[in-house]
Amino acid sequence: MSEIIKLENVEKVYNLGKPNELKVLDDINLKVKKGEMVTLFGPSGSGKSTLLHIIGCLDRPTKGKLYIDGEDVSKLSDDKLALIRRKKIGFIFQQFNLINVFTTLENVEMPMKVANINKDKSRKRAEELLKLVNLSERMDHFPSELSGGEMQRVAIARALANEPSVILADEPTGNLDSKNGKEIFDLMLKLNSKGYTFVIVTHDPNIAKSIKRRISLKDGKIVGGN
Amino acid sequence: MVNNLIDLALKNILRQKTRTILTVVGILIGIAAVVALGSISEGMNAMMNQEMQFLGGTIIVSSQGSSSLMFGSSSSQISKYNLDDFQSFSRVKQVVPFVREMGEIQIGQGSPVMFIGIRPEDVDYFKSKGTELDSGRALETGDTYQALIGYQYAQDNDVGIGDSIEVKKDSYEVVGIIEKTDTNMDNSIILPLETMMNTYNLENYQSAFIIPEDLSKIQDVADDLKSSFDDFDFTTSNDIVKQMSRIIDMIRFFTIGISSIAAIVGGLGVMNTMIMSVLERKREIGIMKAIGATRKYILSEILLESVIISLIGGILGLLIGGIGSYSLRFVSSGLTEAKVTIPLAIGGLSFAIFLGLVGGFYPAWSAAKLDPIEAIRYE
Q: Which residues of chain A are under the pLDDT cut of 50?
């Protein structure tokens, strides 16, 4: 299977060259193949969120290389990175991060709007995705009218909008009760079985242990499960 | 992409309706002021052009000290002997003397009536300046108590050919009506010079037009006249154009300047609104960036919002400024030509768009360069 993500000796240093210099990632080497589900596991401050941001092209490594679908993206400009995020990456956040003034349907359409996909096509696809996450009847609702679990399902539908190569989830169940958390995780498992690739940051042991491939981080280093 | 952006921009604009409306009003006031005040100077310009068409190629003579701009003011005195001197002066083709008297101001009737006395034999001169008759006949040599009346005066007072009008103690017969000119001529009454001077007990002419033989030498002739007749001012139509242009330019400078300040304040309102809006939406902008919006996308979207706001303000301002300018016609008879010209309208709208772009640029730029990670964490 082809590698979707490849990190080579990635280092991330904040405030480089200043007295408060802080190394948050050190010599990270990681490969994620198409169709895999990987969890980044570790205590807070271990660098797992920073690593996820780098993989998600929201941030750049200070040193080392990051390849997405074989393309070296470690030195790309902000706008080029935005294009990579648009085409290849889907995000799921702990805080859901839906746009409150838009309906469920409009939130799911948003990545397609940004990608300049025509209106009819993006509407149709958004409807299909909401059906996939079992929210067809909630299309015209606003996020404030949804439960946490529902909001996260909308966020998952949004993450799938542009057929990304990988879906990155940052504590996706962190703001949910255990029942809703399990539902969301089950949905991600179902999508994974359909071929979607996932990288999930979590410190929920129940989720971590249900994922076959676990990468443990501590103090910015991979300490197990590579 | 443009459709998507406009959709999104409109949605965002409508989120804070009150704030949007207030911002629009800010621009509206500025642009309305630009348009209304601008139309005044345009109107003055148009009036001047009409007057100048009439005065073109003449030297206006008035006695020294009387205002040269207000040619023919009643303080100016030219005797019959002076007139002969002018007429016999070298390179002078024709001298056309006249007197003017203001009639009683008729409240509610627009411009006051102006009585103008000319020699009937000079009628051809006025005809050559484009003054035509609507009906009846022109003054003819030998006419005494005959009169031509302006179109508006005829309409307002329901006077027609064959009717008689009272001027002081004398009665004049209307023989012709001058066609509509949209100038002061519409409210004028033209009488034969000699009889009018009798009616008004005038000894001297107030002013005269001097027409040189060679129009291209008008300035030379005027200069020669000046050096020969110390007691008189000789103003060429070019001088008047220059003087009036200077005044109109000043008026234009002040009106456009002052109204531009109003519009710029409106532009600051747009900037303020957009800064607030970006701050409130910081997290959303972060989300948009995370899902793949480029800097250019965010920049265009927010600029589009501010341009839409200011363009709406501009269009409404144009309408209200136009109404204002139209109303001015009724308030002041001197501004009958105040109008919103196409260049003024285009200028007003372009100014609104410019304000939107300038006011929106800083907030749009600061939004575009937000760090998505930081912006998403923003509460």
A: none
Question: Is B121 exposed, middle or buried, given 0-12, 13-18 or 19+ CB atoms closer than 10 A?
Answer: middle
Which of A202, A183, A187, A198 minimizes the C-alpha distance to A157? Answer: A187
Chain B touched by A33 (CB under 8 Å): no
Does residue A164 sit at the B interface (CB-CB below 8 Å)?
A: no
Helix (H, G, I), strand (E, B) or coil at A114: helix
Mean pLDDT for B7-13 is 88
Compare CB distances from A114 to B11, B297, B372 and report the shortest one's residue.
Answer: B297
Single-letter amino acid, residue A168: L
Residue B335 is predicted with a pLDDT of 58
d(CA B286, CA B369): 10
pLDDT-based confidence at residue B339 (cuts at 50, 70, 90): confident
- Tokens 């971590």 -> residue: A208
Residue whose token pair is 């997405």: A68
Interface pTM, i.e. ipTM:
0.93
Q: Are B162 and B89 in contact (CB under 8 A)?
A: no
Closest-CA residue of chain A to B14: A101
Instruction: Judge whether residue B282 has pLDDT over 70.
Output: yes
Residue of chain B whose alpha carbon sits nearest to that of A113 = B4
pLDDT tens-digit readout, A133-183: 999 999 999 999 999 999 999 999 999 999 999 999 999 999 999 899 999
| B45 phi-psi bin (left φ>0, alpha ψ -120 to 50, beta other) | alpha
Place of tokens 């993006």: A122
Backbone angles phi, psi at B207, to 5 degrees: -160, 175
User: At A117, phi and psi to the nearest 5?
Assistant: -90, 140
Whether B337 has a pLDDT exceeding 90, the answer reads no
Residues of B in contact with A91 (CB under 8 A): 290-291
Instruction: Show residues of chain B in contact with A82, CB under 8 Å.
Output: 289, 292-295, 297
Return the residue matching tokens 């002018």: B86
The model's pTM: 0.76
* Strand pairing class (B207-212; B92-102): antiparallel
The residue of chain B with its CA nearest to that of A84 is B292
Q: Tell me whether A58 touches chain B (CB under 8 Å).
A: yes
3-state secondary structure of B207: strand
Residues of A in contact with B290 (CB under 8 A): 56, 58, 85, 91, 97
pLDDT at B72 over 50: no
> How much is the average pLDDT of B286-290?
95
Predicted local confidence at residue B73, as pLDDT: 47
Which residue bears the tokens 């082809």? A2
Q: Does any CB of chain B come closer than 8 Å to the CB of residue A121? A: no
Q: Which of A59, A78, A82 sits opposite B373 (nearest CB)?
A: A59
pLDDT of residue B71: 47
Residue that has been written with the tokens 């204002």 in this structure: B324
In a mutational test of the A interface, the residue from B291, B370, B376, B377 whose CB has the highest number of chain A CBs within 10 Å is B291
Residue A163 near residue A90 (C-beta atoms within 8 A): no
Q: Per the CB < 8 Å rule, is B288 touching A114? A: yes
- Report whether pLDDT(B25) > 90: yes
DSSP labels, B61-102: EEETTS-SSSTT-TT--B-HHHHHHHHHSTTEEEEEEEEEEE
